[in-house]
Design a protein that fits this description.
This protein is mainly α. It has a single domain, classed as MFS general substrate transporter like domains (Growth Hormone, Chain: A), CATH 1.20.1250.20. 73% of the residues lie in helices and 0% in strands. It is built from 18 helices and no strands. Helix 14 packs antiparallel against helix 15.
Length: 464
């Protein structure tokens, strides 16, 4: 395994504006010198980092996507309308998108372990407060606060992925990591579906996942680490190839973080194109994820428990879609994720159309299978947008770049949350399906604009 020789920085690595517990971990005092031991240690820590972040980010979904199952029961028991519930989703999504960007800027510099654990604990506590509340205003304020703390989940994961894995492997590895979305979302809808069915108490949808998240946060504190130098390992291979700003920093010439962000993120038109396309990816993804139990109950006559399993199947298909999308991107498109996204968005739109037009009385297996096809094709772009942005921005600004795509992605909750809830309440689900199909078509056209984008920002990419 080729690595950059270990070099202990001679400058102060502390960041003045970060509190002590979020300071990046300093380099280990005794770096590992033996090449064989370096290879063994890298193998161990890469497996540990990948598994821990998959579990950690899945737990963030436990205390975010539990609301979708609770919504039908809250609507019945508390008299909250679809428009109001959709407004919860929209406000949460908007704040989450802003938080993902703001915390992305912090996450590029902060200790990934303490940053992720802190966010998960605070989000779990918001769920406890939500489950113990009674007023609509309290629900809205708490869920908005939860949206901010949720934005502390992805940035440390992006920091870890780009610091521990080389660019040439990032699409494949991050596609594996992205199964955390589907594992978390699928598991929590099944769990909450059964909690509601057996206890008819929507509050358990928040209290039980919060307890699991707090236990998980404790475990993560002991399993996660920060960057390779913090455990005595050299920098990962391939991240200082021609033009990486961090190379200058390693040589003693330190560009400001503001300069890095401008050069790597804000002046890159393809990151902006990916961000805009992400709006339409998330419109479809969250339309199913947030409204899936309600949609399946009202249009297909499923129970909430059955709907939970069907939405979980949508997520399961998404896992396969992400893995296949990452492999196809690395194997056939030289790491250029936008090219894979064009194809997937077209096929996703066709799958949603097929689901909409299923004849009345269709079997549950057929209904679930067609929805799974939509999940397969929408989750590949969902993963590849972040992967492509992270690679283009390099590890020095990966979390910020992904955070920028997140602003656009979660701004889509205006459409997928409040917009879709209001549209369906007044005009029915047929109009909702038309909106989702339109989003797929527009997304495909925007991804097409990023077709010429390079694979990464570390220098000349491998040829497709």
């Amino acid at each position: 395994m080729a690595v950059i020789p270990y070099a202990t920085p001679t400058h102060d690595t502390r960041i003045k504006w970060l509190p002590g517990f979020l300071q990046p971990a300093p380099p280990a005092p005794h770096p590992i010198a033996d090449p064989q031991q370096v290879a063994l240690s890298y193998r161990f820590w890469r497996s540990d980092i990948l598994l821990s972040t998959i579990v950690g980010y899945a737990l963030f979904y436990f205390v975010r996507k539990n609301l979708s199952v609770a919504m039908p029961v809250m609507e019945e028991q508390l008299g909250i309308t679809k428009s109001s519930l959709g407004l919860f989703l929209t406000l949460h999504g908007l704040i989450y998108g802003l938080s993902k960007f703001g915390n992305g800027v912090v996450g590029d510099r902060a200790n990934a372990r303490t940053f992720l654990v802190t966010g998960l604990v605070l989000s779990a506590l918001c769920n406890v407060a939500f489950g113990l509340s009674t007023g609509v205003i309290a629900f809205g304020l708490i869920w908005m606060a939860n949206g901010w703390f949720q934005g502390m989940g992805f940035p440390p994961c992006a920091r870890l992925m780009t610091h521990w894995f080389p660019p040439r492997r990032l699409a494949t590895v991050m596609s594996v990591w992205n199964i955390s979305h589907s594992i978390g979302a699928g598991a929590v809808v099944i769990l909450c579906g059964y909690l509601v069915m057996h206890f008819n108490d929507w509050r358990l949808c928040f209290l039980v996942p919060a307890g699991l998240a707090l236990v998980g946060a404790l475990v993560l504190f002991f399993t996660l680490r920060d960057t390779p130098p913090s455990v005595g390992l050299p920098e990962v291979e391939g991240t200082y190839e021609g033009g990486d700003t961090s190379a200058a920093a390693d040589a003693g010439e330190q560009p400001s973080f503001r300069t890095i962000l401008f050069e790597k993120v804000f002046s890159n038109r393809y990151i902006w194109i990916l961000s805009l396309a992400n709006f339409f990816v998330y419109t479809i993804r969250y339309a199913v994820l947030d409204w899936g139990p309600t949609l399946l109950k009202e249009t297909k006559g499923m129970t909430l428990a059955g709907a939970g399993w069907t939405v979980a199947a949508f997520e399961l298909a998404g896992i396969t879609g992400m893995l296949v999308g990452g492999f196809v991107t690395d194997r056939f498109f030289g790491g250029r994720g936008a090219r894979t996204c064009v194809v997937c968005m077209i096929l996703c739109g066709l799958s949603v159309f097929a689901f909409w037009k299923l004849p009345p009385g269709s079997s549950r297996a057929l209904t679930t299978g067609v929805l799974m096809a939509a999940g397969f094709f929408i989750y590949a772009p969902q993963a590849l947008v972040g992967i492509s942005a992270a690679n283009l921005a390099t590890k020095q600004a990966a979390a910020t770049a992904v955070g920028l795509t997140g602003i656009f992605g979660y701004a889509s909750s205006i459409v997928s949350g409040w917009g879709l809830g209001t549209l369906v309440q007044h005009y029915g689900w047929d109009r909702g399906f038309v909106a989702m199909i339109g989003a797929a078509g527009i997304g495909a056209m925007i991804f097409l604009l990023a077709w010429p984008a390079k694979a990464h920002g570390y220098g000349e990419p491998a040829q497709a």
